[in-house]
Amino acid sequence: MFETFEHDVLVIGAGGAGLRAAIEAHAMGAHVGLLCKSLLGKAHTVMAEGGIAAALANNVAQDNWQAHFRDTMRGGKLLGNWRMAQIHAMEASARVMELEQWGAMFDRTSDGRINQRNFGGHRYPRLAHVGDRTGLEMIRSLQDHSAEQDFKVYMEFTAYRLLKDGDRISGVIGYWRETGRFALFRAKAVVLATGGIGKCWQVTSNSWEYTGDGHAMAYVAGAELIDMEFVQFHPTGMVWPPSIRGTLVTEAVRGEGGVLLNGKGERFMFRYIPAMFRGEFAENEDEAKRWLIGDKLARRPPELLTRDVISRAIVKEIKEGRGTAHGGVSLDIATQRTAEKIRSKLPSMYHQFKELGDLDITKQPMEVGPTTHYVMGGVRVDPETAQSTISGLFAAGECAGGMHGANRLGGNSLSDLLVFGRRAGASAAEYAKALNAFPNVDEQVARNLCREMLAPFDRTEGENPFAVTEALQTVMQDWVGIVRTEEELVRARKKISSLKERALHVRAGGNRQYNPGWHQALDLMNLLVGSEMVILAAIERKESRGAHTRIDFPKSESKWAKVNVTIYEKAGQMHVKQQPLPEIPEDLRKLVEGEPS
Amino acid sequence: MRSRAVLRVYRGDRQLGTLKSYEVETCEGMVVLDAIHQIQAKQDNELACRWNCKAGKCGSCSAEINGQPRLMCMTRMDRYQGDIIVEPLKTFPIIKDLVNDVSWNYEVNRKIKAFHPKPQQGGTLRMQQYDVDRVQEFRKCIECFLCQDVCHVLRDHNRKDVFAGPRFLVRLAGLEMHPHDVEDRLEAAKNILGTEYCNITKCCTDVCPESIRITDNAIIPLKERLVSRYYDPVAWVWRKITGKRKPV
Ligand code: SF4
Ligand code: SF4
Ligand code: FES
């Protein structure tokens, strides 16, 4: 029923985290296999635009890992795992330099070092970048470097479920997209690097791949997931024309000086500086203008506040009737920078708006609004090893939770992929080395899973899987968005139960070869798991913090600052519990809570 | 703009296929990929295509639209008046519908030696922005393989056995022009990648969605280097005596 492959370490997902994990595990002598859902080099990392955050201190000498750590923890509204944030801040610079040794080319400072740009929530210019296509640079560098390593890359393979031998991971079952045939990968260790769950929503910057496969696989296998209530809605997605709604407009536009205006032409962000950040941002347009021309005494403009804050502000402006023609706000760089500078620093934004929106961003403002972008929550991992609560199962990148707390800073994702991708790869290789033999695979279980995957073909009648997916995306968009209430969340939860029922009756026609209807039917299962996790966690957290805003509990509560909401499976049911946050050491706590150095 | 349009889409595999007509609803700003998705979701769940970013960044959605190699996600419906014909790339075998087998490209890629820097102090590579800009023209390639599709050496003469195609000469040029790279790839450029098979028709440049000036900026300089290495007697003698390649 399936062919079988064997690898010491099997990495699922070939974006930044997966590639970096595979490279590291291979370097440590493990026999590595890398599964890509798409073709190699097309993973979601390619769409990252703004840059990689690392305290290289090339532009501002005061920057250091402590400052980066402080920004990350505060940006995550103190809910991040302190040790992950610390490791990330300490190792990000080395990972960027290493990427350069593998061929990445970043924009330069006048003295020839890596140039760093400003970004939301980062106190100093910190993002290594190349124009606005840093993700492409990163994935291509990893891809080219790995082409010289002889680990095996399997393209267009969708992993469906993990297999276990008792409590240990023992492999993965899934299908080749091209032929629809099944394959079993036996492995001593598995690294999940599957990205996020953005396709649960209608308006999203995420691609078709982002159906929460890793989240769902880990959950079904019995792993714990944390922080699933925290979903980042990026403040600036395109809103017009309708067919392009949700496509990302990089934060680099604001990093390069872009300003946000409401429909009345007011620069509204000055009104939304939260108490936690007061004193660190410019208080009026005049000061912001001086900052733009390099006045060292002026503070940064409020457009560089964290994404959660800006998205909420935009939603409020629109709700109160101060939106633009198509229900967004304006993002204007044309009045702030020369046309030449805009084209050199934001080439793909220029191109994107010109081709798709009939708009010249060097002359006119862009119309933008929030779009689903990133999930902070994911598989609970050990900070040092990236191992999940299941032996032999590791997770890195977006599908892992903890690092970003309640809100992720821009630029901290690409660095996260490299830092924890490498760590996951190394730990997986070590773990595999310690096992003498491959754990057992129960072939009967594998065969049953194959039958489960084929079920949509057996139904002669049944719904169109795309229709059920769309219904799910509408529920999530309407009731599980940026601002939430208990009533809507409960309603959404009920809706999910009925959608789960409908999903069991979707049908696939035709044969198994490259059949999008069938693929959708299977992805839908994972989308439902991901959505339910977000809803349950969001109901549980009765406060507002970071990206999770409850109208019925508008304040942040100190008791909620001490717990992660955890999702796990028991007897086929999804459960939720609260778990205490690891206690932050005193010196680091002082660093986070004290004045900036 | 019109509210409905007819797409004629290739349905089939490498042996057998036909153009099938679908009527779609259109809206402002719609691109061909939107229409394909609409068909997939509402009319024909089995219609296969590739895509990822829907913003011209990943190079997955390459197809031939009214005979022109283009990205479906960056091609507006309102460019066209009549029926819109969407077909897979001609130069690569068809897997199904709009999905091609492009694995050959990945094999070629492995034949190119990756970047290796000279050892440097303190781990930092110093270079200037103009170095970056020059090389970035090549590094911004999204591997859509549209240039490969249109190049007659591959498309009409099917010389995949000897010629790597414009995409990989672009990669090669980027590596060769990297100010810190120490590898020598000219031998490979000649004998493995077949640079000389290109006869500078510039068709590749015309279709590149990233506006990379493939022929002028990547291929011609490579050809010049090959000429001075292999056919320039002064350079040949110089190399024999010093064992070094001629400074370019
Ligand atoms: S210029 Fe050379 S590589 Fe480009 S299409 Fe013509 S022959 Fe092919
Ligand atoms: S060089 Fe241009 S046309 Fe060729 S693969 Fe790259 S982006 Fe596509
Ligand atoms: S979908 Fe990425 S280039 Fe078209």
Low-pLDDT parts of chain A are none
**How big a fraction of the residues of chain B is strand?**
5-15%
Question: Ends of chain A: how far apart?
Answer: 62 Å
Mean pLDDT of chain A: 96
> Total strand count of chain A, please?
20
Structural class of chain B: alpha+beta
Distinct ligand kinds: iron/sulfur cluster, FE2/S2 (inorganic) cluster
Largest interface (CB within 8 Å) is between: A-B, 67 and 59 residues
CATH architecture of the domain at 234-372 in chain A: Alpha-Beta Complex
What is this structure, in a nutshell?
Chain A has helices at 16-27, 65-75, 82-101, 134-147, 213-221, 252-255, 285-292, 307-319, 339-345, 347-357, 412-434, 443-458, 465-479, 486-503, 516-540, 586-593, and strands spanning 2-12, 32-35, 52-53, 116-117, 127-128, 152-154, 157-165, 168-176, 182-192, 225-226, 231-238, 259-261, 329-332, 366-375, 378-379, 393-395, 483-484, 549-550, 563-570, 573-580. Chain A is an alpha/beta fold and 597 residues long.
Blueprint (SSEs and pairs):
The complex is a heterodimer of chains A (597) and B (248).
Chain A: E1 2-12, H1 16-27, E2 32-35, E3 52-53, H2 65-75, H3 82-101, E4 116-117, E5 127-128, H4 134-147, E6 152-154, E7 157-165, E8 168-176, E9 182-192, H5 213-221, E10 225-226, E11 231-238, H6 252-255, E12 259-261, H7 285-292, H8 307-319, E13 329-332, H9 339-345, H10 347-357, E14 366-375, E15 378-379, E16 393-395, H11 412-434, H12 443-458, H13 465-479, E17 483-484, H14 486-503, H15 516-540, E18 549-550, E19 563-570, E20 573-580, H16 586-593
Parallel strand pairs in A: 1-2, 1-9, 2-6, 9-16, 17-18
Antiparallel strand pairs in A: 3-5, 4-5, 7-8, 8-9, 10-15, 10-19, 11-14, 12-13, 13-14, 19-20
Helix pairs in contact in A: 1-4, 1-11, 2-3, 2-16, 3-11, 5-15, 9-10, 13-14, 13-15, 14-15
Chain B: E1 4-12, E2 17-25, H1 32-43, E3 62-65, E4 68-71, E5 84-87, E6 94-96, E7 99-100, H2 103-110, H3 129-139, H4 146-150, H5 152-155, H6 166-176, H7 186-191, H8 203-207, H9 214-230, H10 233-242
Parallel strand pairs in B: 1-5
Antiparallel strand pairs in B: 1-2, 3-4, 3-5, 6-7
Helix pairs in contact in B: 3-6, 6-9
Residues 59, 141-147, 166-167, 170, 207-210, 212, 214 of chain B line the site of one iron/sulfur cluster.
